[in-house]
Amino acid sequence: MNFTRWSARLPGTQRRAAARTEHAVSPDRRGEGSVPAARAEQLTDGTLSVPTVDELPAREVLDRVPALVALVHGPDHRVAYLNDAYTAAFGARPQGAPAREALPELAELGLMPLLDQVLRSGKPRTLKSRKAVDGRSYTFTCTPVAEDGDRAGDGAVLVFATDVTDHAEAAARLRASERRQRETAVTLQRSLLPQELEQPDDLRIAATYQPGGTEAAVGGDWYDVITLGGGRTALVIGDVMGRGVRAAAVMGQLRTAVRAYARLDLPPHEVLQLLDGLATEIDANQIATCVYAIHDPNEGRLVYASAGHLPILVRDETGTVQRAPDEPTGPPLGTGGWIHSSGSVPLGPGSTAVLYTDGLVERRNEDLDEGIAALERALAGATGTPQVVCDRLVRSAGVTADHDDDVAVLVLQHPARTGPDGDLFRNAALELLGGVEAAPRARAFASGVLTSWRFPTDLHDLGVLAASELVANSLQHGTPPMRLRLRRTDRRLIVEVTDGDDHLPRRRRAEPGDESGRGIAIVATIASNWGSRRTPGGGKAVWCEFVLPRP
Most buried in the list 13, 247, 417, 486, measured by CB within 10 Å? Predict the structure, then answer.
């Protein structure tokens, strides 16, 4: 094939030739002050005229181009020309042979359909950064070349391949670095989350964490379950704004702080106040949302405080779903200067509560309330164990491996126990009015209840002794009203005394001559665990618990 025929028709050649014809200056006007054409006139100093690009031979130019150039012709894309760079990269190829056979490297890169498309449409197309068989990466630009007399689909296509290996390798290194950083963040995130959830006596709990997809950096979502003692359980879920290792590290610090503050057995809003100050100290530019809730089986309610987090959803035993009120919700942690408050939502036997982060319900181009409403509908129909409910909620929200945000979900159920299972969970309470008869009444009441619960003799005697010492401590240091409460679960016996004084007792060493100060020490010695807390209405509660022997 004569390459000259096609080189004359390369893109832009006709337009430049026409421009030269239209703007040619007649010889008789050159003396009237017009500037002579540089390519047609010899300079005054005797130097030779320099040819323009239009006058250069196209084949010679393409032979010297470092990029790979090939010219194919006709519907079979028969080889018409290969420049030296192409031959050096892939070897000499016979002219006139179909490109599918003569240029297998183009077929392997998927260029054949693109050549067909360019030939049909007459428009150039580009294929970016493809790795060829020689191990290097190229960007291919296919440009149509046609004569006026060519029929449709009978023209030629000029293939121009630019070596972009350095750029491709740099991009690959960047992607590998980002992948390693993401893997580090995911590993850090998962290591800071609880490896095994605490399972309190009265609740069944499950949680799930789903990191964002490969294109999304890991965020700072977290959750935790903390057994407070005395049958009470703290639950927390939060989301640190931002992505990557930094967000995961801040999350870990906040989670550790929550566990420490929970041991103080403070009301939820006071825990958030402490967390707010800590978040400011960790990073003044970092904020986080959080919900901290406490479940007390004796009250049948979930007391909570929220720092800018999404509302808790609760489904009761009838299947009705309600949102926790928005009133106690304050600004996110780290903003400072806000007094948080606590609220409550019913969580009786047969109820299920869901705490979650925004990745479960927030979608682009969709209102957040719509996502929460969809989650409510999914929760209304989600039954089964907490883990089953978790999985169903995640699936109903359309969360997949390539989700664009982290997702954390915490599901807790307060089972409705009946029959033999219900016999393992009992409560008994006695109001104490004070006076000298209070201690004997408390001992008699505790002995009768523990006998009816068929506890072994040694555990019966320890329970009566603990009740006697706690009541005696309340009579000496507390104020009415006083109450003794006994509670058993399938795992432990809990003895609790409440009174109207908010001074919390502490364990101290009594000297041999002291007549008091040994009650709490005795309780701490015989019980598996003990503690005290202030009650919401004023006053305090002092409790201890004994682990039941396994059947």
Answer: 247
What Å distances lie between residue 548 and 226, 427, 429, 490, CA to CA? Answer: 21, 16, 20, 8
Helix (H) or strand (E) holding 380, with range, is: helix 368-381
The tokens describing 77, both together, are 């894309």
Distance CA 310, CA 354 (A): 11
Residues 42/48, Cβ–Cβ less than 8 Å: yes
CA angle in degrees (0–180, nearest 5) for 211-213-218: 45
Extract the tokens encoding 139.
């960007």
Characterise 91 by phi-psi region: left (phi > 0), alpha (psi -120 to 50), beta (else): left
Q: Which of 54, 89, 55 is nearest to 70 (CA)?
A: 89
Cα separation of 128 and 137, whole Å?
A: 9
Q: Are 218 and 185 in contact (CB under 8 A)?
A: yes
Q: What is the pTM of this model?
A: 0.71
Distance from C-alpha of 432 to C-alpha of 425, rounded to nearest angstrom: 23
pLDDT one-digit tens code per residue, 525-541: 999 999 999 988 889 99
Distance of CA 158 to the CA centre of its chain: 48
CB distance 1 to 73 below 8 Å: yes
The distance in angstroms from the start CA to the end CA of the chain is: 95
pLDDT bin (cut points 50, 70, 90) of residue 175 is confident
> Which two tokens mark 253?
């610090």
CA atoms in the 13 A half-sphere facing the CB of 117:
11
